[in-house]
Amino acid sequence: MQTASRVEVAPLQDPAVSYLLQQTDQAENQRDFDTALRYIDDALTIEPTNPHLLQRKAEVLLAKGDFLVAEKWAMKSYDSGAQVGQWCIRNWLLLAESRDALGDLATSTAARQRAKGCPVLAKPRF
After folding, report:
1. What residue ranges do the domains of the chain occupy?
2. Predicted confidence pLDDT, tens digits, the chain (126 residues)
3. 94, 55 Cβ separation under 8 angstroms
4. For residue 61, what are the contacts with CB-CB under 8 A and spacing of at least 6?
5. DSSP class of residue 94?
6. Residues 15-116, CATH architecture
């Protein structure tokens, strides 16, 4: 029998970062991506290596149309994160979306395949 050897851990979040992410969400909902990026950058001054913040920045950049810069931040998030679970999937799917927009279907397909390797399997129960 094969067991999962990886776990996804959700770190505790600084209240100031939580507030800044709420502001980011509001700005994104209004399609004010420059303001959303400022809030994320403020959060990154508090937690500069937080992979979730790095990915959120990538997602706002993607929405803004800055595809290559978004990819850079998504891969920075992947490299500093657990490389499993929801955030791993988001990292690779962002790359796939970016590559779709740039017309690079081969890399997009490969990124979607990588995303399939991210889920954390449930622990077996006996």
Report:
1. 15-116
2. 444 445 555 567 799 999 999 999 999 999 999 999 999 999 999 999 999 999 999 999 999 999 999 999 999 999 999 999 999 999 999 999 999 999 999 999 999 999 999 987 666 776
3. yes
4. 33, 37, 67, 69, 70, 73
5. H
6. Alpha Horseshoe (1.25)
